[in-house]
């Protein structure tokens, strides 16, 4: 029987497209931002991308906790409204650093919105239909990723990079209007408990510094004083937050959730899988532009095959999980990801041999569709509805850290190679082969009764 969704739940589903659209489009408009408002300074312009990852990883977990404390609808409305406003601020930014500040505020808003939207989407969904609903969420995100690249390229061609932020704001404004017009919820019981502000600050700053060092480590030097100081500070602050969380009724780090097997496994696999899923974008795009000589827009449109396949497969994969279990879908999906990336790892050449690369593009979509959304589903399968936002944010925080690590590894690996040589672009494919194999082995360990 089909799930009847409320107005706020439909708004939350559409809201899932905002993150996918923003993430893809931001990479496409980056060269225009670099060449215009940044005056050709690529290093400075890159902060429009990196600041979003740093802020997002830093505040996501606490945003999930606040959503569970004060209401998923409240935080969702606040997040999507903030994203609307700060997208317009970004479009009107007079300087690069004003744009970077607006991008940070966008990321903050998305982090507030994301765990709340997931909790709203799953609210009142029968357990037997949870994975299909999560698959729908993943498919919508993937479709937005497919649309984002060509849309951003078109907007830059006919206007400027500012037009893309106006489009973000327009989409978000529509979602915000639907969310604010929905009936208001009651404040959750227990929301009046005192918040551990010191603990929240330590984990936010600690996670932010951790992602900062992963993002900037290649430029700073992994053994440099700056890297060591920031990394040590991150470890100390996260350690303080963990210590303060032990035994608290409302800890800043939900250690009790990590004691459940599926959640703990989902968090570990979120790190390892995100390494590959973020890395394969860089691997594919640099291969297409630097080795095969495609334009950035052509490369982006080619790479969009990956989210397109994900969009096609995510909902059927979720339905299959509901019918069987996580392992029967995630294990073969991860194995296909590994095997199909082995094709270019073995036979990539400098010629545009599409028979070599196309299997990997399809394999990436299969892997993302059968592993990425189900990881969140598996991890939250035993979590009470009133803690869904916290649990989701915890998993997605691990994904952000893994994504930053995967990007750093890939950039360093490619930079260490010789420009134009096949091995520079072929060898990193083995990282993706290994990630797929690890995901398959790990997915086989999810509890069989997770969906019962």
Structure notes:
With 452 residues, the protein is mainly alpha-helical. It is 79% helix and 0% strand. It is built from 18 helices and no strands. The chain has helices at 7-35, 42-45, 47-70, 72-91, 96-122, 130-158, 161-181, 197-220, 225-245, 255-258, 261-291, 296-303, 305-323, 326-347, 354-379, 388-415, 422-426, 429-443. α3 packs antiparallel against α16 (388-415) and α5 crosses α16 (388-415). 56% of the residues are buried.
Summarize the structure.
By secondary structure, this protein is mainly alpha-helical.
Q: Overall mean pLDDT score?
A: 87
User: What's the helical proportion of residues?
Assistant: over 70%
* Domain unit count: 3
Q: What would the principal axes of the Cα set say about the shape?
A: globular
Distance, first to last CA? 18 Å
> Would you state the CATH class of the largest domain?
Mainly Alpha
**What is the CATH architecture annotation of the largest domain?**
Up-down Bundle
Biggest β-sheet: count, sense, barrel? Answer: none
What's the CATH H-level superfamily name of the largest domain?
MFS general substrate transporter like domains
Q: Give me the secondary-structure category.
A: mainly alpha
Regions with little confidence, pLDDT below 50 for 5+ residues:
none
Instruction: Please state roughly what percent of the residues sit in beta strands, choosing from under 5%, 5-15%, 15-25%, 25-35%, 35-45% or over 45%.
Output: under 5%
Q: Output the radius of gyration.
A: 21 Å
Tally the helices: what do you get? Answer: 18
Number of strands: 0
**Which H/E pattern describes the elements?**
HHHHHHHHHHHHHHHHHH
CATH topology of the largest domain: Growth Hormone, Chain: A
């Amino acid at each position: 029987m089909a799930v009847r969704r409320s107005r706020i739940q439909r708004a939350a589903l559409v809201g899932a497209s905002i993150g996918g659209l923003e993430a893809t489009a931001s990479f496409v408009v980056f060269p225009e931002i670099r060449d215009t408002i940044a005056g050709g300074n690529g290093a400075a312009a890159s902060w429009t991308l990196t600041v979003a990852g740093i802020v997002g990883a830093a505040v996501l977990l606490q945003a999930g906790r606040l959503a569970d404390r004060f209401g998923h609808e409240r935080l969702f409305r606040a997040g999507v409204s903030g994203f609307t406003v700060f997208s317009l601020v970004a479009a009107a930014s007079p300087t690069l650093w004003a744009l970077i500040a607006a991008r940070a505020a966008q990321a903050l808003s998305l982090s507030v919105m994301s765990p709340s939207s997931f909790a709203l989407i799953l609210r009142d969904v029968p357990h037997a239909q949870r994975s299909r609903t999560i698959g729908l969420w993943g498919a919508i995100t993937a479709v937005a990723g497919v649309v984002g690249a060509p849309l951003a390229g078109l907007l830059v061609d006919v206007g400027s990079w500012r037009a893309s932020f106006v489009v973000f704001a327009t989409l978000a404004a529509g979602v915000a209007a639907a969310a604010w017009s929905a009936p208001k919820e009651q404040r959750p019981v227990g929301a009046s408990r005192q918040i551990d502000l010191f603990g929240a600050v330590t984990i936010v700053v600690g996670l932010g510094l951790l992602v900062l060092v992963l993002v900037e480590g290649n430029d700073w030097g992994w053994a440099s004083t700056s890297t060591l100081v920031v990394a040590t500070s991150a470890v100390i602050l996260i350690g303080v937050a963990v210590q303060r969380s032990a035994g608290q009724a409302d800890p800043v780090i939900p250690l009790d959730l990590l004691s459940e097997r599926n959640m703990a496994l989902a968090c570990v696999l979120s790190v390892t899988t995100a390494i590959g899923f973020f890395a394969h974008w860089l691997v594919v795009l640099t291969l297409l532009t630097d080795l095969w000589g495609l334009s950035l827009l052509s490369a982006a449109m080619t790479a969009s095959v990956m989210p397109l396949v994900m969009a096609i497969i995510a909902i059927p994969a979720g339905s299959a999980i509901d019918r069987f279990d996580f392992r029967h879908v995630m294990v073969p999906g991860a194995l296909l990801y590994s095997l199909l990336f082995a094709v270019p790892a073995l036979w990539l050449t400098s010629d545009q041999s599409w028979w070599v690369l196309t299997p990997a593009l399809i394999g990436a979509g299969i892997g993302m569709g059968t592993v990425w959304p189900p990881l969140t589903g598996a991890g939250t399968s035993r979590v009470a509805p009133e803690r869904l936002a916290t649990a989701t944010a915890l998993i997605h925080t691990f994904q952000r850290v893994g994504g930053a690590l995967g990007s750093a590894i890939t950039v360093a690996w490619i930079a260490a190679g010789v420009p134009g040589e096949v091995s520079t672009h072929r060898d990193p494919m083995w990282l993706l082969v290994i990630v797929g194999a690890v995901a398959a082995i790990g997915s086989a360990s999810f509890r069989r009764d997770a969906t019962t």
